[in-house]
Amino acid sequence: MHAIGKPVVLFKSGFVVCKDAPFLGASPDGKVIDAGCSEPYGLVEVKCPETKYRVTPLDACSDPKFCSHEVAGIPQLKHDHDYYAQIQGQLGVTQAKWCDFVIYTDKGLSIERIK
Question: Considering the entire predicted model, what is its pTM?
Fold first, then answer.
């Protein structure tokens, strides 16, 4: 996988319990190491939207109900969408600094680094 044009290494992730609040937990899709980043440890969250599987992630943004919208020709996760809250929760629980949000369809791939 390449995040924002750079090679990264992916690892499986299981359920993670928050160190500061052990009653909280999260299950990110994976952990990522981006050696070219000043903060190399992050997460990955992958979505394969069934209703948009036959179009590119950018074309899917034309649907106002889709999780992302187009910003300067690139899909960007809406901050008021449940997926954004999910990622922020995962970042809080794991204490990671960023998460690569991936939209995968039969027609393309979109990767956005969420901090």
Answer: 0.93
